[in-house]
Amino acid sequence: MDLNAQNLSNRPPGPLVNTQGHISVEAARVVNSYFHNLLKTDQSEFSPRLTVQESDYDNQPFIGISDTYMDHVRSGGIVISQGKLKSISGNIANLTPSGEQIDDIAAVVLATGFKASASLSFLSEDIQQKLSIAPNDLNNTVALAFHSTHHPEVPNLGFVGFYRSPYWGAIEMQARFVTTLFSYGGPSSPSLPAKLAESLKNDTSIERVFSLRTDPRASQFPMGDYAWLSEEFGRALDIEKVPSLTKMPILPPKNKEMNILTAARYPGRNLDETRRKQNENNLIVTEEVVTAGLTQGRFVARAVFRSLLGEWKLDRQLVSKKPEQPSGRFIGTATFSLRNGTSHGREEEFANIEQEGGDQGFEYLYVENGEFVDDANGLRFNATRRYIWRYNERKDKLSVWFVKTDEDRTADYLFHEIDFIPPGEGGKGEDGWKAIGSHLCIEDMYNVQYKFSFSSVNLKQWRLGYSVNGPRKDYSIDGVYRR
């Protein structure tokens, strides 16, 4: 999403315009509508309390990104309460203004965030007054010039890191700016380069902070749009933005080649050969990842894994060509329970990851329960089965594992890996992404077919089919999973 958001081909031609700060009702409706169209949901499918109402479109957007939060809410692992904490009495929390109570509290996590004023308490009272510190305004705590880098009344003091947004590139640009500013003698120096002096002359950052402190429609990230900030710093430092190094995909709606902004697009001057190659490699890797994602199906396995969490309704048909084996229909549920990755069945790989200090990631315990009915033979019985589903981030690969017969929460050995068919080979159609797998059980071959259907980033439905052929088995299975 970030790479798409920083696709400059979607911006109007000419110099970039800041999209943050004060958010008008019209601008709010445009952005909220964009995200609704992007995600194709009003969030009611996860919880009524998460529903985006029509009246919410007038409010400035506030966005949170999580792999699993929404599906934890849908599955009941997270229960939402709306309001603010008023008090705690024993193990009961009282909320305001609803008066709602949350009981049986086991622990309280104080996610109070970072208060910037405390980190500046070492400064003298005189300097703090010049910086116009507002301790209770967590978004606009300090009134600083040129995008939170300095204050003209304290010319020997620079700031790096006063930036509210997830992009490290802006902080890197702050560091470059402060270094350059002081290398020429500070903000009041007569020897500042022309473009730097002009940028300081035209800067209105301090006035902007004061206006946002009392603005009820201030944006979530009030300091500024990342792309605009990068251009502002680049102009002040006279750093030319380099072009993309590879041929990028052409995307709608403007049918233009992608033009992704990252910090590496502003490499700086006087780089030695090592740093120049590092910067160039950074650009190439980013562009290759984007191209692979759009044209080769990279990260589809990751998207599927993320969206499996929780309970699914399962309807499966089994057709056997051997009279001694039943044919029929299974109806039930399949639940994917998320847990930390385990080493069982892959001990060597797991040990290597630990030795390198890597992340073992997560896995699912898959449990299905339901009833199998064979009307032709008058059979009806309850059935259950379990697997372990894993995602290998290094290989971008999903795999399914058998569980041990005597420890039904523990992986035993590999059933099959899931290989997604590239889009150019018919792997992606209007009805979803196709994938295959296989498993040889002694002399019987399992050929596995998948089809995963998304609505935007959320998996809505998927199919799992087997054709099993060999001297002992000859049957096919077709199962559909729906929310």
TrEMBL record:
| Highest taxon of the lineage | Eukaryota
UniProt KW keywords: FAD, Flavoprotein, Oxidoreductase
Among the GO molecular function terms of this UniProt record, one is: oxidoreductase activity
Residue stretches making up the DUF6314 domain: 308-483
InterPro entries, alphabetically? DUF6314 (IPR045632), FMO-like (IPR050346)
Annotated organism of origin: Arthrobotrys oligospora (strain ATCC 24927 / CBS 115.81 / DSM 1491)
Q: Which residues form a coiled coil?
A: none
Recorded protein name is DUF6314 domain-containing protein
PANTHER family from the xrefs? DIMETHYLANILINE MONOOXYGENASE
